[in-house]
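seq:
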Amino acid sequence: MKTLSRLFLAAAILPAFALESPAEESRPNFLIIMADDCTYNDLPLYGGENARTPNIDALAARGMVFNQAYVASAMCQPCRAELYTGLYPLSNGCCWNHSASRPETKSLPHYLRPLGYRVGIAGKVHVKPDTAFPFDPVPGFEPSCVDDPTKPHDLDPARAYMSPENHEGPFCLVICLVEPHVPWVMGDPSQYPPKKIKLPPNLADTPMTRQHFSNYLAEITYMDGQVGEILAALDESGQADNTLVLFSSEQGSQFPGCKWTNWNTGLHTALVAAWPGKIAGSTRTDALVQYADVTPTIVDIAGGEPSPVFDGSSFAGVLRREKTTHREFAYAMHNNLPEGPRYPIRSITDGQYRYIRNLLPNEIYIEKHLMGGGRLNNPYWATWVGDDPIKKPETYERIKRYMSRPPEQLYHTISDPYELSDIAGNSDQDGVRAKLSAALDAWLKDEADPGPEVDTVEALQASRKGEHLHGHP
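struct:
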């Protein structure tokens, strides 16, 4: 159970890290590469049947793939804040998109610098404020995910940051790419003819949806090319053998049922870890992890002591194949402001089943980017609404699933990864539902989650001003 002494504990633990600093030669580097809005099972690594990603596949062949990795919020800013702080959204304060964490929040730079690390970030930052995320700025990659087209990248600054010739001590470098975030304008969509691709079953099959999905697939392949160039630059730096590389796909893509939801295709993320001589190649693990566990893992491997303020915990034992399990549950929340009218959602998964609780089920769900107009939005939604309900009743079912949701939902995710069959009403699942519901209640209590009161204009505006109204200080 958390206490209100988080901040005092955080302040007290930092000097202890310096005392625990290991010998220079034993401290590895860390390179984190993040995609942007990429649904995990659109990657071949997780069963994707369209996109080609030879560089990510090659990285996986040199390391470990996590079959069960999750974010706590399927939106860019909250999930990144979770990853860098080791804290859930309400704990660090960032539980809406385009908001901010609490100014006193500690993140990777605070934990690694006392251990002698340089901690930099390149590309899309999308976390606030600077006091909570004091990364070294590393230029060379596009910081804006909505530029059309994406500006060409320059690997020289990242290469220089990784080079031991220019710096003393180990590095932790985060490179945040902006593909395949909308607008889908990069890459070569001719590789993916719309009529030949296989649409995921949670999408309505219209010609415009196919065209947009083709463009999205092209951006995945473009992103994969960037991953290959970054890994080549690491090799050129001479640091590859002493560097733990983590690749993650962030949350799901900007298609209905993925980003901005608590379904599996929103919250499930790709996670690959490679470290020559330390992590066995071509391995997979079913250990349940989520973004809150990443910073504790890095601090652990760097030689620091775990902070008592962390919500997550180190999965270094899984990487070393000393353990096959990690956490019992992965938790998630969604607050819909400012992306649409308030629609708070909470959920939990044990890796087999997912339980979702829609806190305002009498409201309809609206997400302005998916359902509205404009340069950065998706015009294919109108083709869903305009589809013939007699000839294609399945399109109506996809719309209804997205906009109208019951108070509780339960899915056997292992057999139904797109979570299309809600089994919450099945009496033979009462035990599973009750167990997950009780575990979710315990988490909400621990997080001091007030429920719908978080998803309000007042709470969002207070966050942006650094005056958080809810959750732990």
